[in-house]
Each structure stands twice: as structure tokens, then as C-alpha cells.
Amino acid sequence: MGSRKLTTSSKVQKEHNRKTRNDKDGGYGWFIVLLSMFAHIITYGVSWTVGVFFVLFLNAFHATKGVTAWAGSLNTACLYIVGPVSSILINKFGCRPVVILGGAIAAVGLGTSALATNIYHLYISFGVVTGVGFGIAYIPYLVIVNHYFHKKRSIAVGIAVSGIGFGSFIYPPLIETLTHHYGWRGMLIILSGITLNLCVIGAFMRPFKDMDQHKNQMKVKERVFNIDIFRSLDFLLLCLNNLLFSFGLSGVYSHLSEYSLVMGIGGPESSMLFSVIGISNLIGRFMIGFIGSHPVTNAILLYIGAFSVSAIATLCLPLFTQYGTLISYAVIFGWSSASFGVLLPGITCKFLGLEELASGYGVLLPFNAIGTMLGGPVAGFLYDILHSYNASFIVLGSAMLLSAVLMVVPYWRERRRPESILNVDPIKKVKPNVLLDETHHESDLDDSIGKMELDDLPNRTDVHVDI
After folding, report:
1. Where is the composition biased (Basic and acidic residues) (predicted)?
2. Within the chain, how many helices (H) and strands (E) appear?
3. Is 44 helix (H, G, I), strand (E, B) or coil?
4. What is the predicted pLDDT for the residue at 204?
């Protein structure tokens, strides 16, 4: 009698899991993708056009380049550094209220920036408050998309983060136009109103309804943050990779516009470089998303290749002194750097598992913050000392190249791993705090597989590595 009940329960569970998998990769999930894309437009429209703000603040307060660069660098750095706080809030309250809270804080930061009387005031309002608001809201944009998608995850994430490209394309001319008509203070007030739309977007971010996922989320809420993710060697290397690439990325975004002005290129043309980066970044996110979702594509190898292209192009930037060559650089850099946002969530899931995505991403973001906070000012101080951007871009490009080289180790470990685990029962070897309890028996293997997506399991050897 007991075995019949168990069999019936097993069949019901399998049918539920089949329906759940069918509910993923479609339906309301595509509306979530659209919402996430608009949220990325608003967030990165501000944070990734800091080069445009840099020129405006430089002219408004007449501080040195190194001092002025801190306002933009703090903005992007704070966006990343509050990642762990955002992760804890997501695990405790869910994605919807966290997005609403972050949007409100960011709007207040931009609005109060219009009242600044010196560059140091902008460190607090534009740099810290606005950056913290965007940072709290940012992780939910990605986490909720990953919950709604599995097989089409790379495509869905690619479309969602394409908002970064749209934002980088739309915001530079928007900022120029608003500044021309209303001044830089009026422009910031209008951007504050636009940013309040994050609260509306957050209100529509309905959580994905899945019984098994809900149980896992309850376990996550009980522990709030899982420190076992630091036992993954591959994940630790990914953290260093993020730090170094963010250092280079921040420096380029902070100084490319000013570099073009130093080369004798006019203001509107200088701002247009960010629009070119934005549109090529947008195209790159769609293309890399589709390429990354192909079964034969190795995401880590694609990640390494794209980072290497960004690094080599930046190392060559001192040779680009004409507007045409700078446009070419903007196209190459925008396209190749798109891999950062598209592939990173999937690689994080590969190393840690889907249920640890929020915690893992929350840990990655402070590393991004450190790199972002240092990239712009270091490049600016090098210019102030040497009166040339050549050394600045060589340092920035070298950091990006090293970030790509670091990821060769996880790729090599992944290539060696399959042979060593072919005959290993995946259920028994995975840490219980990731997806499953170790008490599963062989007879329950089919049911266990129905309760999870095996592609989202963390690498076995990662979880057991002692650092």
C-alpha cells in the first residue's frame, strides 16, 4: 500500500515537473525579459555614460581629471559594491520589492545631484546614493530572468541585457540635448524622473511559481547567504577576472570622450562614440546570446575570446588618433565587451548552481566595484602626471588581457573534468546546500532528476576544492 502511494506521488511529481519545465522558456517570461531590458536601459544609460557626465562636471567645477573622474567611478563602483546587500534582500523578500526600493533611491540621488555646489557633493549624491540605488535594483533584473528560463536562458539574458546597449546608445544624445535646453542641473532632474520608472517596472516583476523552486528558496532564506561558494576555485578566479576587466572597462568609459577631445575631435562627435559603443554592444548582446545558446558552444571559451578582443583593441587605442579609427575602436570594443553581461550569469550558474546565482552574483559585484572605482581615477592620474593617455590605455588594456588569461584555468579544468566524472552518481556527489539532500537513494534517481535541471548543477570538483 505504501509503495503504491509512493508510486502515485512520484508520478504526480513527475507530471508537475514536466508542466513546470513547459511553463519555463515562454509565456510571462518574455514580458519579464522586456521589463528587464527597460530596467537595464535606465540603469546603464546613466552608469555607462559616465564619460559624458565627466566632461560636463569637468567644465562645471574645473577640477583636475583625476579628481573629477571619482564622481563617475563611484557611481558604477557603488552599483556593484552593494551586490551582497542586494542578494540578501532578494533571498529575504524576493525580486519585486528590491527593484522598487533601488529605483526610488537612485531617483533621489540623481535629483539631489542637481543641487551640488562642488565636485565633492557629487561624490555623495551622483556617486554613492545613485550608485547604491542602481546596485540594489540591478541583481533582481538578472535573477528573475534566470528563474523564468532554462533552455533559452542565454537568448533571454542576451535580450534582457541588450538594454545596456540601448541605454548606452540613447542616453548620450539625450543628455546632450537636455543639457543644451535645460542646463546640466535640469538634465539631472529629468533623468531622476525617468529613473522613477524602475519602481513601476519592479511592480510587474511577478515571481516564477514553482513548487520545488519555492522549497529551495525557503532553504535559501533560512541561511540568507551561503559561504560555501568561496570553496569553488573556478568561482574565485571568476571574481579576479571581474575585478581586472571592470578596471579596464571603467577606464575606457571614463576617458574615451576626453581622449577624443584631446585628439582635437569636437564635443558632439565625442559623445557619439558612446552611442556607437552602445549600438554595437546591443548587436553584440543579441549575437553572443544566440551563439552562447548553441549546444556546441563553450561559454567559457567564448568569454575568453571576447575579452581578449576588447583587451587587444584597447592596447592599440593610442594608435587611433583620427575620428574614423576611434569609431572603429568603438564598434569593436562595444561588440566584444557585450559578452560580459550576456555570458556571466550562465557561467556563474555553471560554477555554483542556479539556486546560488543571487549569492554568487552578489559576491562578484564588489569585485567589479573595486575595479570600476580604480580604473577611471588611475587612468586620470596617469594623464595628469604624463600629460598623455598612452600609458593609461596600455595599463587598462593589460588588465583586460590578464582577466582573459585567468579564465583559461576554469576552461582547462572543465575540459579535463568529464572523463573523471563519467561514472560518478551526480546526485550523491553534490553538496546538499546547493540543490539536493545527500540522503537520496539510487531508486529515487529518476524523481530527483525531475526536480532539477542538471545543467544548473555546480561542478562537482569545484564544490569540494579546499582553498
Report:
1. 12-21
2. 22, 0
3. helix
4. 94
Query: What do you get for the CA distance between the two ends of the chain, in Å?
Result: 49
The whole-number average pLDDT for the span 259-278 is 82
Alpha helices in 196-298 (DSSP H): 197-203, 211-223, 233-262, 267-293
What are the chain's domains?
A: 19-206+218-420 (1.20.1250.20)
Locus of grid cell 511592480: 203
Burial of 197 (0-12, 13-18, 19+ CB in 10 A): middle
pLDDT digit string (tens) for 82-103? 888 888 898 889 999 999 999 9
Question: What is the per-residue DSSP string for 316-349?
Answer: TGGG--SHHHHHHHHHHHHHHTTHHHHHHHHHHH
Distances (CA, A) of 383 to 8, 378, 388, 391, 452: 71, 9, 5, 8, 52
Q: pLDDT tens across 326-365, in order?
A: 999 999 999 999 888 788 888 988 888 877 877 887 788 8
The 8 Å CB, 24+ separation contacts for 441-445 are none
How far is Cα 110 from Cα 130, in angstroms, rounded to an integer? 6
pTM, full prediction: 0.68
Taking alpha carbons only, the member of 32, 183, 25 closest to residue 115 is 183
**Residue 463 has what pLDDT?**
37
CB atoms within 10 A of CB 31: 13
Burial class (CB in 10 A: 0-12, 13-18, 19+), 181: exposed
* Residue 455 DSSP class: G
Check if the beta carbon of residue 106 is closer than 8 Å to that of residue 133: yes
Nearest to 300 by CA among 393, 398, 416: 416
Asked if residue 90 lies in contact with residue 175, where contact means CB atoms within 8 angstroms, the answer is no
Going from the C-alpha of 413 to that of each of 232, 233, 236, 306, 460, the distances in angstroms are 12, 10, 14, 20, 11
Most confident of 29-33, 51-55, 268-272, 452-456: 29-33
Distance (Å, whole) CA 390 – CA 392: 5
Amino acid at 290: F
User: Distance of CA 116 to CAs 79, 111, 158, Å?
Assistant: 20, 10, 37
Residue found by looking up cell 515562454 in the block: 26
Continuous H helices in 117-196: 119-122, 130-148, 153-195
